[in-house]
Specification:
The complex is a heterodimer of chains A (110) and B (108). Chain A is mostly beta strands and 110 residues long. Chain A has no helices and 11 strands. Helix content of chain B is 0%, strand content 56%. Chain B has no helices and 11 strands. The interface between A and B is medium-sized, with 21 and 21 residues.
Chain lengths: 110, 108
């Protein structure tokens, strides 16, 4: 079945460490997105990519980096520069018919 | 002004009640509209698209008012399982814009 796979589901990071969240899709969608969701808050766009080897900053890109070397993959790195990284991270891909989301990665800084 | 605005609620309604959510959008050129449902600690999932003529799926009715730039979601005969956060999503060109979500709790 087609879909988006995010891994890991839960991730714990020490302060000062970089971590990379995986996002893979087999839907053949061109566009992919990373969102962050904090408790009781809406989705905030971190980065998005409309096509391979191209990506754009979203509203809260500081402290994050991405790559889009393959259509299927859009990994997100949370760097040590991100001051408050504890959150629920959602990857999505889209067509004009709407978004499909991965099941999310819950990142906690310890 | 935000691209998409929703009343965050919470809406606490008794089982069997009818409840309606509205969502306003700022870009008159917006092309596609959706309602998503998000359960606690889960990813949002597509509930239904919103068509210009309005559309219904069982107990759920979605409507679009382009003149006033809002979309609505009506839930009839609320069930306990309808408790969730409902997000409206608006597509304007290359980007999708999300509302912050409206929290619904259906009470026995």
């Amino acid at each position: 079945d087609g879909g988006i796979t995010q891994s890991p589901k839960y991730l714990f990071r020490k302060e000062g460490q970089n971590v990379t969240l995986s996002c893979e899709q087999n839907l053949n969608h061109d566009a992919m997105y990373w969102y962050r969701q904090d408790p009781g808050q809406g989705l905030r766009l971190i980065y998005y990519s409309q096509i391979v080897n191209d990506f754009q900053k979203g509203d809260i890109a500081e402290g994050y980096s991405v790559s889009r070397e393959k259509k299927e993959s859009f990994p997100l790195t949370v760097t040590s520069a991100q001051k408050n990284p504890t959150a629920f991270y959602l990857c999505a891909s889209s067509t004009r018919g709407g978004y499909t989301f991965g099941s999310g990665t819950r990142l906690t800084v310890v | 002004r935000k691209e998409v605005e929703q009343d965050p609620g919470p809406f606490n309604v008794p089982e069997g009640a009818t409840v309606a959510f509205n969502c306003t959008y700022s870009n008159s050129a917006s092309q596609s509209f959706f309602w998503y449902r998000q359960d606690c600690r889960k990813e949002p999932k597509l509930l239904m698209s919103v068509y210009s003529s309005g559309n219904e799926d069982g107990r759920f009715t979605a409507q679009l008012n382009r003149a006033s730039q809002y979309i609505s979601l009506l839930i009839r005969d609320s069930k306990l399982s309808d408790s969730a956060t409902y997000l409206c999503v608006v597509n304007s060109g290359a980007q999708f814009y999300f509302g912050t979500g409206t929290s619904l709790t259906v009470i026995p």
